[in-house]
Automatic annotation (TrEMBL):
It comes from the Eukaryota. PROSITE patterns: S1. Residues 206-290, 313-361 form the S1 motif domain. Coiled coil: none annotated. One of its GO terms (cellular component) is small-subunit processome. InterPro entries: NA-bd_OB-fold, Rrp5, S1_domain. It comes from Eucampia antarctica. Gene3D superfamilies: Nucleic acid-binding proteins. This is S1 motif domain-containing protein. One of its GO terms (molecular function) is RNA binding. GO terms for biological process: rRNA processing.
Length: 361
């Protein structure tokens, strides 16, 4: 276990003067920032991060620095990895000379046992906005409104729960791309730690996401829901209800359909949704709340996600995505669709005009 003032035992005596690399010169504040990181001294960009993968949940980490009103630096348990190392491959004489020269820059400081131990500690930083979930406690709101002395601001609560040497029960790694500092970004708020989705890469067509909050109603009647922190999905109007006429009524000026939508899809309500398509490039996710699609796999096996999974005789549920005189187009998941011709509809169901009998959605 490292002492809080371990650096005082290192940067003294023969280690009072050390070699460092300038990384920032702030002409306004007249501050020069330096780095002792081995990969910075060696001018080497790491091929991969030595931090735990994004999404990893880590238990029992410890706060080692508190920046009031900003965030906290947290040390990960010592069992998670080692310090970043620079490996010099064998080469010709000139390369070996350069390698020896690079190693000599950091050798003396690394020989100090206390510094070597400290350099192996992996750290992550949590911003105050991702540290705790906002409270909806009515008493707290009343205290704030009345100016009660017992009311605590987010900054005060943060300082209370993230004091020096405080053990953090759980945190989640969010970003490991800060290779210069070799410090990951993390979150400790329960909603983020337990979230099923951190980015659009975590979303898959055909997957149902339960109890996601409605965050906005668009002017065209569509919904925006929050799948994860900063990850939103859209539910088009014709995917709110099973029946097309209900979706049309939901956009009407008044009546049952409008009231039904307002009651069920009010901002803040938690609803179940299912992913129809997701685009990583556009960061767009289209969802459905149709009851039939949410429960369509019961007794029918896996949903249709690609054309390779389609076999003759398979029963699957989809939605009508296009209607014209030639027939109807039925779409499943991941933009996989099929067509039923007007002739087949007439022969099997007696449908003379598809545009009369079927509607979009």
């Amino acid at each position: 276990r490292l002492e809080e003032t371990w650096f005082k035992k290192v940067f003294s005596g023969k280690f009072r003067f050390v070699k460092a690399r300038i990384i920032v010169v702030d002409h306004v504040s007249k501050i020069i920032r330096l780095s002792l990181q081995s990969h910075i001294l060696h001018s080497v960009v790491p091929e991969k991060s030595t931090m735990p993968p994004v999404g990893t949940v880590i238990e029992n980490a410890k706060v080692i620095r508190l920046d009031n009103g900003i965030g906290a630096l947290i040390a990960l348990p010592s069992t998670l990895g080692h310090a970043m190392e620079i490996d010099d491959e064998d080469g010709d004489d000139e390369t070996e000379k350069v390698s020896k020269k690079k190693k000599s820059v950091f050798t003396d400081l690394q020989r100090n046992e206390v510094y070597a131990k400290a350099s192996r500690v992996k750290c992550c930083y949590v911003h105050i906005s991702k540290a705790m979930d906002e409270t909806n406690d009515e008493d707290s709101k009343k205290k704030k409104k009345k100016g009660n002395d017992t009311f605590r601001t987010p900054e005060t609560l943060f300082a209370k729960h993230f004091g020096l040497n405080t053990t953090i029960p759980k945190l989640r790694i969010l970003n490991t791309s800060h290779w210069m500092d070799n410090i990951a970004s993390c979150a400790t708020a329960e909603s983020i730690v337990s979230a099923a989705v951190l980015s659009h890469a975590d979303i898959s067509p055909g997957v149902t996401y339960k109890s996601v909050p409605v965050i906005s109603t668009l002017t065209n009647g569509s919904l925006l829901v929050q799948l994860g922190i900063g990850v939103k999905g859209i539910v088009p109007t014709h995917h709110l209800f099973d029946k097309a006429h209900m979706a049309e009524a939901a956009n009407a000026a008044g009546g049952f359909g409008k009231n039904a939508r307002m009651d069920k899809f009010k901002v803040g309500n938690l609803i179940d949704v299912r992913c129809l398509t997701v685009s990583l490039q556009d960061k767009k996710c289209v969802l459905t709340t149709k009851k039939t699609l949410l429960s369509s796999d019961l007794g029918h096996g896996e949903p249709i996600l690609d054309y390779a999974s389609i076999v003759e005789g398979k029963i699957a549920t989809g939605f009508i995505s296009k209607v014209d005189k030639s027939g109807i187009f039925v779409t499943f998941y991941n933009n996989v669709y099929g067509r039923v011709s007007a002739r087949r509809l007439a022969e099997e169901l007696g449908v003379e005009d598809p545009t009369v009998n079927y509607k979009l959605g």
